[in-house]
Amino acid sequence: MKHLTALKALVLLACGAWAVTISEIQGTAFQSPLAGQFVHGLTGVVTAKDKYGVWIQDDRTDDPRASNGIRVYGSAAVKYASIGDLISLSGRVAEYRKTADDLFLTEIDYVTALTTISSGHTVEPIILGEDRIPPRNQLSSLDIGRDGWLSVPSNLTLLESVNPSLRPDEFGLDFWESLEGQLVTVKAPTAAQFPDRFGSVWVYGNWPTTGKNERGGRTIHSNGPDEAPPAHPEAIFIGRPMDGTRNPKAVMGAVLSDVTGVVAYQFGYYYILPLTAPEVVEWPDFDVPSSTLNYTTHPCQIRIGDYNVENMNPRSYHIPKIASHIAHHLHTPDIVFVQEIQDDSGARNDGVVSANRTLRALVNAIKKASGGVEYEFVNVEPEDNKDGGQPGGNIRVAYLYRPEQVSLVPGSIGNATLSTVPLVDWEGNVELSYNPGRIEPEHSAWEEARKPLAAAWQLPSGDRFFTVNVHFSSKRFSSSPQGNARPPVNGGFEKRTSQANVTAHFVSSLLDLSPNASVIVAGDMNEFTAARSVLRPLAAILIDANDVCGVPLAERYTYAYDQHAQEIDHVFVSDAIARRGGDVEHVHVNTWARTVGERASDHDPTVARLWVCDAEIDAAWTAVEYGTDHGQTVL
Ligand SMILES: *[C@@H]1O[C@H](CO)[C@@H](O)[C@H](O)[C@H]1NC(C)=O
Ligand SMILES: *[C@@H]1O[C@H](CO)[C@@H](O)[C@H](O)[C@H]1NC(C)=O
Ligand SMILES: *[C@@H]1O[C@H](CO)[C@@H](O)[C@H](O)[C@H]1NC(C)=O
Ligand SMILES: *[C@@H]1O[C@H](CO)[C@@H](O)[C@H](O)[C@H]1NC(C)=O
Ligand SMILES: *[C@@H]1O[C@H](CO)[C@@H](O)[C@H](O)[C@H]1NC(C)=O
Ligand SMILES: *[C@@H]1O[C@H](CO)[C@@H](O)[C@H](O)[C@H]1NC(C)=O
pLDDT tens digits, residue range 562-618? Predict the structure, then answer.
């Protein structure tokens, strides 16, 4: 664009004033050094245009921190400037954001003296992955703490108050900020998951990334006990196309055609606003394989399923889909931990708290789907509107179980306010004071939250094991990971930390009575194990079933949010179970769906096959069928 420099010099002479360049306006920090000032004779070529303004660009300097593109806002630009025009204008340098939780977008407003110098110019986009490569680890130098961007306490500083100098080679926000306003191309991007409700799609380009799973998504995990989990700053959101076309209904792992657009900040995130919509050029396979953990023949082994069934009531359209997943993808496990069972009147706020009809409907649907497997169910009715979730819905956790395989240790079921505790019965066996029963339901940790349901079970042999089904508080009111608060706010983490703690306390009291007890704690914990401070109380006394079974780090996910695949549903087991080995699989019936609408739930189910009593009596059988290391077993 050498010729532009010459033209610009002419214009500047004509204006009779020395003017600034776009790079000087953008500067080398997050905010413009010229914010609030009026500038004259600013020139640039129009690269893109929408209803509210245009984007212009001039020559790039050698400093990778200073962008040479900028937003020109207002009707004058819309009216008088076209793509390819070299324009000159005067205006005010402004830092714009919609809310104080966002980062600023630098723009020129109050535009006057807009003139077109010449037309028909083209601007070569920066090829991401070739000309510039996004960093892969953390989002911001301000995300201090052991868990990086997931560290708590959070919101220790506000990025725009610090306004740090950009370090685009190291930090994701700095990288995208250094390209703000510039025309860029992403070649053959891979979608990270479904579009959001506005049609925007997270993508990874053809450049180095971390956490890549087999589907083509990127999973949140840390690489070691002392490493902060990468935040996937190398992903970018593709926003609404500027020419009015629509982005495709992408899915995790779909490959798109090349995208060219302008880097902008809006709605709490950096985006590429494409000139026109890409299309999907390669779809992943939509056949979701069933779990391979389809049977067990050993009396000490059980199969459990875990599934957040998303606000299920007796009339839910998704009951047959969930039932089919349990029957065909999970192969009717012996016990299914379910979360988000609503009461019999669903979201109607009418005082109904029983979920017998909801659970009956699910159990009947599974019987139909499986050709005859008949579950029994058990749950404890909550107090009306005391457990959070959709008002009136009274969601709770529940167990479905196959009475021919397992039964509850005889006892009396708890109620909403009674707390179950482990006891030793007259024969020296550990039992629960209420079975099943809630764990410290009146503890402040569970205010406006689902209470965990503990149960003592027995096998036909009489051997006992214990389960806790949990649904911790949600991440609602988290701030955008690309927002002003650093580290970003992890909504509800105090709640979840204390819930993990109360749950862990219960398990400890059980293990105090019986150090070799087989205990399984599973459910929707609304948290990643990489947010170590939150789940530490549980992780300190139990073992992640993924670790027992050697599930690759990148394949540990049950959910997709923003650009990440992530595991927020977990199975933790006691030492006794871990020592015996086992298998666990996350079955991606929902994160791999064809569309958001075709999902049965926002969570994927998990299935595990575990040993809940000692199989030594059967050592020969074990050796033949499983080798010596259960963790390595493939049926
Ligand atoms: C379990 O799955 C395997 C492979 O998918 C199949 O060969 C086998 O017949 C199944 N077993 C049962 C009991 O369903
Ligand atoms: C729900 O089912 C349980 C167990 O079968 C029973 O004890 C309870 O009375 C039922 N509740 C209602 C409201 O029908
Ligand atoms: C639970 O049972 C206890 C003891 O019978 C009783 O005092 C309490 O009111 C019950 N709670 C609810 C919510 O029904
Ligand atoms: C972060 O803290 C500041 C006060 O320092 C507060 O104004 C802001 O609302 C907080 N941000 C979020 C997302 O909670
Ligand atoms: C965890 O529980 C223990 C014992 O119940 C208590 O002393 C501690 O303060 C709790 N910690 C948190 C973070 O709730
Ligand atoms: C627990 O099991 C281990 C391994 O089977 C055994 O060595 C240990 O003695 C048991 N501990 C107790 C308290 O039963």
Answer: 999 999 999 999 999 999 999 999 999 999 999 999 999 999 999 999 999 987 644
- Hey, what are 421's tokens? 């505790």
**Ligand 1 atom closest to Cα of 295?**
13
Nearest-CA residue for ligand 5 atom 14 is 498
Sequence length of the chain is 635
User: Does residue 16 have a pLDDT over 80?
Assistant: no
The protein residue with its alpha carbon nearest to ligand 2, atom 14, reads 356
The whole-number pLDDT of residue 5 equals 54
Helix (H, G, I), strand (E, B) or coil at 25: helix
SS3 366: helix
Q: What is the CATH number of domain 4-118?
A: 2.40.50.140
Most informative mutation of 493, 501, 533, 535 for ligand 5 (most atoms within 8 A of CB):
501
The residue whose two tokens read 């303004």 is 53
* Under 8 Å between Cβ of 575 and 543: yes
Contact 595 CB / ligand 2 (< 6 Å): no
> Comparing 4-118 with 301-611, is the CATH topology the same?
no
Q: What average pLDDT does the segment 417-445 reach? A: 97
In CATH, the architecture of 301-611 is 4-Layer Sandwich (3.60)
Residue 282, φ and ψ in degrees, nearest 5? -155, 120
Q: Ligand 1: residues whose CB is within 6 Å?
A: 292, 294-295
Give the pLDDT mean for 399-417: 97
The rounded Å distance from CA 294 to ligand 1 centre is 6
Q: Closest Cα to atom 1, ligand 2: which residue?
A: 356
Q: How far is the CA of 600 from the centre of ligand 4 (A)?
A: 36
Structure confidence by residue, pLDDT tens digits, 536-553? 899 999 999 999 999 999
Q: Tell me, yes or no, if the pTM score tops 0.90.
A: yes
Closest C-alpha to 558, from 530, 584, 586: 586
One-letter identity of residue 586: H
Are 400 and 336 spatial neighbours (Cβ–Cβ below 8 Å)?
Answer: yes
For residue 206, what pLDDT is reported? 94
C-alpha–C-alpha distance, residues 590 and 369, integer Å: 18
Task: Of 153, 128, 316, 301, give the one whose Cα is nearest residue 206.
Answer: 128
Ligand (nearest to CA of 102): 4
Beta strand ranges found along 487-545 (DSSP E): 519-524, 543-544
Cα of 518 to ligand 6 centre, how many Å? 12
Taking only the tens place, the pLDDT of each residue in 329-385 is 999 999 999 999 999 999 999 999 999 999 999 999 999 999 999 999 999 999 999
Ramachandran region, residue 26 (left: φ > 0; alpha: ψ -120 to 50; beta: rest): alpha
C-beta separation of 11 from 117 below 8 A:
yes
Nearest CA to ligand 3 atom 3: 418
- Domain ranges (residues) in the chain: 4-118, 125-284, 301-611
> Which amino acid, residue 377?
F
